[in-house]
Structures are given as structure tokens and as C-alpha cells.
Amino acid sequence: NDPGAVGNGTNERYFIRSNITKRVKSYLEKEGHTVALYGGSKQSQDMYQDTAYGDNIGNRKDYGLYWVKSQGYEIVVEFHLDAAGSSASGGHTIIPSGLKADSIDTGIQNAIKKHVGTIRGITGRNNLLNCNVAKRIGINYRLVELGFITSSKDMNTIRKNVDAYCKSIAEAIHGGAIKSGNGKNAVAKKKVTKKTSTSNEKWNKNQYGILWRKEVASFTCNVPQGIITRRIGPGRQYPIAGALKKGQTVNYTEIQKNDGYIWISWLTNAGYTVYMPVRQVKSDGSLGPLWGTIS
User: Fold this and answer.
1) What is d(CA 141, CA 129) in angstroms, rounded to the nearest whole number?
2) What distance in Å separates the CA atoms of residue 91 and residue 169, rounded to the nearest whole number?
3) Is 78 exposed, middle or buried (0-12, 13-18, 19+ CB in 10 A)?
4) Distance CA 169, CA 110 (A)
5) In the predicted structure, residue 206 carries a pLDDT above the cut 90
6) Average pLDDT, the chain
7) Side-chain-side CA neighbours of residue 56 (13 Å)
8) Which residue in 153, 14, 146, 161 sits closest to 85, CA to CA?
């Protein structure tokens, strides 16, 4: 029930949920990303209050960021509007103290600078609950102050350019340009995409219900943020093994279809198998863009 900061005829909660998050989500989904809004489509929950509740009752699994961690999301972006005197203007990006800003953080900071200007640089904080919890449990997290709700200059700028602003933020998260179109009610058209390989072999199914088949090839990552790899199996619920950085190449021997993604796997020099998603499988069965090149 917390409305957040108030100013210029609106409140932070309403403005963010009505104008920002859904637009950013729509743009990212155009590029094949899986995006969830905290609290579902109605955004009816408060991640800060839920995280605090989990801390207070000693349940670090089922509430707030703890629950988000269990779902296997690769990044978390929390949007806010700042508040101060009417002359304060500009936004900035907040990350957990002691961590280095990544390409998503710098990209979002550049988007803020482009559209409303910045009041300060990317800032590490150790006095914010979600920052501290995210750092402790290993979530790639940032809090984005889009501008000042108490500044008529900032709010007028955001309102007039809200779609362009959200697209710039989505491009920062995506790591590249996003196809044009309005983000508010945009519907991604179904398109024909290449298969992971040129093979027309049918899928096999193992004892766990995971679809798989043999495929020997090389994959080179081309997304700026890299791709997280997993141990044990092809699923986001499994332990993180590491990450393949942009420009790095691996030789793989098998592909899998599971957990809404196409995965590749290979045996490491240490003697265990690593699994990595390389593209999304959409709800209609079509494939999202490949996150690299196959040769």
C-alpha cells in the first residue's frame, strides 16, 4: 500500500507501474527475453516489503528477493522516482556497494543521461536492504532512479518522452538496438527464426523428461552481458557454473530443450558437464534470437 514518493500530480508507485515497467518489458520481449514483473501482471506486491518480511521471520526462500533468486532470473532492475526539493533534477543508477558496474549499469546510466540528465554517477550503496540482500545472495541487481518526481522539469520530460526513455533502458539491458515500435501495447509479430543448427534430427527424451539430441559445433557468445552456465542440468534452478563472456567460444556436443530455452552442453577440462542457454523457446513454440553464432 506504500505509494512511494509523491509530486507533480502523481505518486511513484502508480507512475512506475503504469508507464515504465510494462513498456520496458514489452521491448525486451521483442528481442526474445523472458521478463517477469514482480507481483505479476498487476504488480500487486512490493519487493522491498516482501524482502524485509522474509528477513524478519527468518524465511530466506519464499519472499521478496529471496523468492526471485529461487526462480533463476539472471538480472533484476528496480525502478524508482527520486524526491527532494523542486530544484533537484536528474537520475542515477544504484548498485550494491563494493561491486563493479557492469555493461547493463553503465548502459542504463547513459540512458538516464540522454533523456533527463544525471544528478550523480553510478553509486554503490550499503544502506539499502535490497542492495545488501542482492549482493549477499548473488543477484545481478540495480536500482534505477529515473528522475525526480518533485521536479516539474524531470516529470514533464519523462512524460513527453516516456516511450523513447523506456526503449533506451531496454536496449541497455538487452545490450544492443531493439526494433522500432511503441512499447506500451506492442505485440511482437510471429517470425520465422533459424533453428539452433541445420540438423533436422528429432529430439530424444531422457528419464527426466528433458528433450535432447547430439550436435557437435562451436558457439561464440555475442551478447554484452555474457551468458550464465549451469551444472547438473539444463535449467535455471541448477547451480551456476560460471559464465561465457562476449567473444568467447566453446565447443559443444549436445543440445537440450528445457525450462523455456534451447541449451548447449559440453564436458569441461575439470571433468564435469556444463549447460548453457543460447536462445528462448517462446510459448507458441517459436524460437527467439540466438545469443551468438554457431559454426
Assistant:
1) 12
2) 13
3) buried
4) 9
5) no
6) 88
7) 7
8) 153
Query: pTM of the prediction?
Result: 0.64
Closest Cα partner for 224 from 280, 292, 164? 292
Dist. CA 122–CA 267, nearest whole Å: 38
- Residue range 52-95, pLDDT digits in tens: 999 999 999 899 999 999 888 889 999 999 999 999 999 999 99
Cell numbers standing for residue 179:
526494433
| Residue 194, C-alpha cell as written in the block | 533459424
Separation of alpha carbons 237 and 72, rounded Å: 6
Taking the alpha carbons at both ends of the chain, their separation in whole angstroms is: 52
Q: What is the pLDDT of residue 183?
A: 54
Residue 198 grid cell: 541445420
Q: Where are the domains of the chain?
A: 6-174, 204-294
Tell me the sheet residues that pair with 293.
220
**In sequence order, what are the beta bridge partners of 219?**
250, 294
Measured in degrees and rounded to the nearest 5, phi and psi for residue 23 equal: -65, -50
Q: Helix, strand or coil for residue 178?
A: coil
Query: Is the predicted pLDDT of residue 192 greater than 70, yes or no?
Result: no
Domain 6-174 in this protein, CATH class = alpha beta
- Residue 18 CA to its chain's centroid (Å): 19
184: cell is 506500451
Supply the pLDDT for residue 187.
32
Instruction: Pull the grid cell for residue 172.
Output: 541497455
- Domain spanning 204-294, CATH class: mainly beta
Output the pLDDT for position 113: 98
Query: Residue with C-alpha cell 534470437?
Result: 289
Looking at 31-184, list the stretches that DSSP marks H as alpha helix, in order from N- to C-terminal side: 47-57, 64-71, 103-115, 129-137, 152-160, 162-174
Give the integer Cα–Cα distance in Å for 225 and 291: 11
Which residue do the cell numbers 516529470 mark? 155
